[in-house]
């Protein structure tokens, strides 16, 4: 488990503070099997449980039985480790979510900050954590158990308008009012699509994605390109690399979009070069010039040099001729 | 289809017509600038190289995370590492859009089931149609 924490910690530093308290919580049942914990200090163990595990369990009784497996699983499962691995990213995501929610009250007037959110989260995250380590440690578990709106809606209601209260306190008092209010659920879930996308990208089940459509568009200028690359082809090209194994369904779409932007970049730049040279045709040499003008295109240098040589050898093609004129 | 006909080499390239179309979308005829055939072919090679680069970088990232499947997340991280971080927002948007479309499809499928009739009615209808079909064949 600590290994996992190490893996994830560097990527999102704010979570490291979540994990260290999280570790014992999760492992408390399993350490019971070890002589040291079980024999020497059963008292301590139980008190630990009462602190860190009880409230979720209590809530568990209020919840539909379907959720029971969660508390059961970590303790008894024989393959604890792989399971832990799988759960971790999920929890990580959820903690992210949660941080978002926690921040919301502070920044409520405008949602737009969320578009650039990742940095905001990591800044604000630790502050909250340190103020309420215990609560924040529970909450991801709560979220896993509760149906999405159960947790969400109270946030919308109580938070934004009224209290400048610590989210932690809210958590303590929350369970009572579970009534989902449609309006507020909306307020919460209107977190912009870029955030939703981040969740999706992480393989999160789209918990609240359903309501996340109404996003004020981030500063993405509309692409002139309407034609999409065939995703099957992209996938095949990706998998031509033997190292590349399975590819998620969305991945070729993401790559296709990136490719599109890559092309826009390359094509407009080479068109600029053509304009400078008073040419109406973009030649392979102009493209080469663009590639060599910027380190960003480093990886294309081999290709462009090869192509030019080929063209010199064959000396055919209007493009090569035009380019020769320009150069000469 | 045409992929199978030509087989092999063409497989791992991008369709020329599509690339040409995209190029002319980027450079509409009003700009008065066109891509030469050689430039387009070179562009295609660059595109393939770009895909390969991104996917191998993403593959490494996914391996580091002990994941067997390359997800969107890995692509965006790869783009960032390769100096294409300005592509990331649009990529995320496209992925989210796709997700939305997919969801719409699922919903449609569900609606198709639900909107019709109750299960009993559907069963009755099915029985009727079976009977009709049987009658037609005898």
Automatic annotation (TrEMBL), chain A:
Low complexity biased stretches = 28-58, 78-119, 130-148, 205-224
The cross-references to InterPro entries, in alphabetical order and at most eight, read: CBFA_NFYB_domain (IPR003958), Histone-fold (IPR009072), Transcr_DNA_Rep_Reg (IPR050568)
Q: Which UniProt keywords apply?
A: Nucleus
**Xref: Pfam families:** CBFD_NFYB_HMF
Recorded GO CC terms: negative cofactor 2 complex
* Segments for region (Disordered): 1-228, 309-328
Residue ranges annotated for the Transcription factor CBF/NF-Y/archaeal histone domain, each copy included: 228-291
Source taxon at top rank: Eukaryota
**Localization:** Nucleus
A molecular-function term among this protein's GO annotations:
RNA polymerase II general transcription initiation factor activity
Q: Which SUPFAM superfamilies match?
A: Histone-fold
On subunit structure and binding partners, the annotation says:
Forms the NCT transcriptional regulatory complex with nctB and mot1.
| Record flagged with keyword Nucleus | yes
Report the family membership: Belongs to the NC2 alpha/DRAP1 family.
Q: What is this protein called?
A: NCT transcriptional regulatory complex subunit A
Task: Respond yes or no to whether keyword Repeat is given for this record.
Answer: no
Which species is this record about?
Answer: Immersiella caudata
- Compositional bias annotation for Polar residues: 187-196
From TrEMBL, chain B:
- Main localization is nucleus
- Listed GO cellular component terms? negative cofactor 2 complex
In alphabetical order, the GO MF annotations are: protein heterodimerization activity; RNA polymerase II general transcription initiation factor activity; TBP-class protein binding
> Would you say which domain of life the source belongs to?
Eukaryota
Say if the entry is tagged with keyword Nucleus.
yes
How does the annotation summarize its subunit structure?
Forms the NCT transcriptional regulatory complex with nctA and mot1.
Q: By what name is this protein known? A: NCT transcriptional regulatory complex subunit B
Q: What is the lineage of its organism?
A: Eukaryota, Fungi, Dikarya, Ascomycota, Pezizomycotina
